[in-house]
Write a structure and sequence with these properties.
By secondary structure, this protein is an alpha/beta fold. The chain has an eight-stranded parallel β-barrel with strand order 1-2-3-4-5-6-7-10, surrounded by five helices. A two-stranded antiparallel sheet has the order 8-9. β1, α1 and β2 form a beta-alpha-beta unit. α8 packs across α9.
């Protein structure tokens, strides 16, 4: 049975401890914590910051299922830069350092997965060069200290934007510490057969993020406000035996997080029930 979680990047207008409480109060089973200066600052995080988070998780019974390390402004004003395929060695090293910091934070909090992405390929970087740098950067993290599994998320317009692309990288790396973090909305944007892609790549998948999408435009909508077939999605997960977390990601609805929390769970719970009931008539 899948478990529902909510990404704390959609609650960054309140403290991380209050975010944990809000997610638990809304009836979710897990929370995807997120690197963000308002919650978990990767450059100012230590035992003093970890203690109240662990206490809040214990108090609420909520599971921290993943740590998202993909906020757009963690390393500077240029969104998502420098990336793992940045033209400069210094830039790539800064991103590797950030992912290593995320792994340390995840280990400190007992979080099993770190969600991250490739970044965009700049025009002056060739495709083969980008692949080489990506491989080198991921291997540097895997060879570094830590236990958390790296779960790479495909992102529209990023170097790796499809589930299949990350799956191919997973095959090349052949590491138990590298996996796919699917994002259903992103899949809907870039894939013609988005449910087929979800199903095909479930063997690589450790965490799934969801949001609704309207007209294949990359804008995160609250579930029920777009055209994703959530009942079909949960049917796919059932056939594939996926029993991990499905985490709602609505970073752009932080100003009305209470509504987003409640409605997302209502829509997804109804879709899970419809999938379990099977075809009607």
């Amino acid at each position: 049975m899948v478990k529902l979680a909510y990404n704390a990047n959609g609650l960054r207008t309140i403290s991380v401890e209050r975010a944990i409480e809000a997610v638990a109060d809304a009836g979710y089973e897990g929370i995807e914590l997120s690197l963000h200066p308002a919650h978990l600052d990767p450059f100012a995080f230590g035992p003093a910051e970890a203690a109240p988070i662990r206490k809040a998780l214990e108090r609420t019974g909520l599971t921290a299922c993943c740590l998202a390390a993909g906020a757009d402004n963690l390393l500077g004003e240029e969104r998502f830069e420098p990336s793992l395929i940045h033209p400069t060695a210094e830039g790539r090293a800064r991103r590797v350092d950030l992912v290593l910091r995320a792994v340390r934070i995840a280990d400190e909090l007992g979080i099993p997965y770190v969600n991250f992405a490739t970044g965009k390929r700049k025009p002056e970087v060739g495709e083969e060069q980008a692949r080489q740098w990506l491989d080198e950067g991921v291997r540097q993290v895997l060879e570094g200290p830590g236990n958390a599994v790296l779960a790479m998320e495909p992102e529209p317009e990023f170097f790796l934007e499809s589930n299949d692309g990350v799956a191919r990288l997973a095959d090349a790396l052949a590491s138990d510490r590298f996996a796919l973090a699917q994002d259903l909305g992103h899949c809907r944007v870039v894939e013609e057969d988005y449910l087929g892609s979800v199903e095909r790549n479930l063997p690589y998948t450790k965490i799934i993020q969801v949001e609704d999408i309207k007209g294949r435009v990359h804008h995160h909508e609250i579930p029920g406000d777009g055209d994703i077939d959530f009942a079909g999605f949960f049917s796919v997960l059932g056939r594939g035996g996926y029993d991990g977390y499905v985490s709602v990601e609505l970073y752009n609805h932080a100003d009305r997080y209470a509504h987003a929390l409640r409605r997302s769970r209502e829509v997804l719970t109804a879709a899970i029930a419809a999938a379990a009931a099977g075809p009607q008539g």
